[in-house]
Design goal:
Strand order of the largest sheet: 3-4-5-10-7-6
Pfam family, one: FlgI
Function: Assembles around the rod to form the L-ring and probably protects the motor/basal body from shearing forces during rotation.
Protein name: Flagellar P-ring protein
Radius of gyration: 31 Å
Number of strands: 23
Family: Belongs to the FlgI family.
InterPro entries: Flag_FlgI
Low-confidence stretches: 1-23
Structural class: alpha+beta
């Protein structure tokens, strides 16, 4: 059953890849590029979550006790941090991404992660927490009830846990207090640049050609495999956002390198449609070694003075599957490779070895990535 699932995964992914490349599908430029200078900024802060039902940090989390004592001191209540006994409080790290073009007063989502040994943040409320950027300035403040997707139930050795109850989110939980200016136009040259998500000279050249066909002339030029520079026409000098929207909707056919990606842990294999197999003969066989240990009880006769002992009995078996030789003809599609490997009935681990051997023999025309 495991082999069937693995190869169904391979076949489905490969068929999808074939469908994509046979049909020469196109995508929008904005789906494979991003405008240089348009980016988000990471924010981070330290805060306290209160209102937990006894699932907060223990007394051993000294920073939680000190933080709680400091917070109460600001509210006019003096408490020795060494005397704090509350289990309804947890120290947390709050992270968020400040999107581009966001204005002051807008709200953004935040993620809250436990810092100490709290068991769960379910039902907690984050107290007012400033979120800072890499320059140390406060760009947003977060506060509100947490939404935790997981839970923990039971105790001792009988415990059930789903997902991660020590990480939660607060949708629209932070208010932006300071905006970041976003500049994506080179005012001196009158240009902006498109950055490819997957750098490739062929794809960059196709993007430039499509833009030039739409705008006329040579408005777009390829700087390198990752960058296409576009000169802003005079008719769009005061309408750059509209120009970007128009360019983003233009269809382009991206070029995908011949690549095979194998994840041995999950058994997932993705084979690009441009992968080619040269003629090769392939044989594969498995040697399986099985070791089983059974424990038997040795009971001495009555009044013999002996002791009852547990005696382990080990059984070792080795079996080697019969090797079979297959010939893979010159493959114009990845179907030849899939059919041949499917006939061998290999496991995910064997599949990795076969692909590596094909690559080493020079029969696999493409890049092999094993994760």
């Amino acid at each position: 059953m495991g082999r069937i699932i693995v190869f169904m995964t391979v076949v489905i992914i490969a068929v999808l890849c074939c469908a994509v490349f046979v049909g020469a599908e196109t995508v929008r430029i904005k789906d494979i590029t991003q405008v240089e200078g348009v980016r988000g900024n990471q924010l981070v802060g330290y805060g306290l979550v209160v209102g937990l039902s006894g699932t907060g940090d223990s007394r051993s989390s000294l920073f939680t006790n000190q933080s709680l004592s400091n917070m109460l001191s600001k509210l006019g209540i003096t408490v020795d941090s060494q005397q704090v006994r509350s289990k309804n409080v947890a120290a947390v790290i709050v992270t968020a991404e400040l999107p581009p073009f966001v204005s002051e007063g807008e709200r953004i989502d935040v993620t809250v992660s436990s810092l100490g040994d709290a068991k769960s943040l379910q039902g907690g409320i984050l107290l007012l927490t400033p979120l800072k950027g890499v320059d140390g300035k406060v760009y947003a403040v977060a506060q509100g009830p947490l939404s935790v997707g997981g839970f923990t139930a039971g105790g001792g050795g009988n415990q059930v846990q789903q997902n991660h109850p020590t990480v939660g989110k607060i949708p629209n939980g932070a208010i932006v207090e300071r905006s970041v200016s976003t500049s994506f136009v080179n005012s001196l040259k009158g240009t902006f640049s498109l950055l490819l998500q997957n750098p490739d000279f062929v794809t960059a050249t196709r993007i430039a050609r499509v833009i030039n066909q739409e705008l006329g002339g040579r408005r777009a030029r390829v700087i390198d495999a990752n960058r296409v520079e576009v000169s802003i026409p005079e008719s769009f000098s005061d309408r750059v956002p509209q120009l970007l929207a128009m360019i983003g909707e233009l269809p382009v056919e991206p070029d995908v390198p011949a690549r095979v990606v194998v994840n041995e842990r999950t058994g997932t294999v993705v084979i690009g449609g441009n992968v080619r197999i040269l003629p090769v003969a392939l044989a594969h066989g498995n040697l399986t070694v099985s070791i089983q240990t059974q424990y038997e009880v040795s009971q001495p006769p009555p009044f013999s003075g002996g002791e009852t002992q547990v005696v382990p009995q080990q059984e070792v078996q080795a079996a080697q599957e019969e090797g079979r030789l297959f010939r893979v003809e010159s493959g114009n599609t990845i179907d030849d490779l899939i059919n041949s490997l499917n006939a061998l009935g290999v496991t995910p681990r064997d599949l990795v070895a076969i692909l590596q051997a094909l690559k080493k023999a020079g029969a696999l025309q493409g890049e092999l990535i094993v994760e």
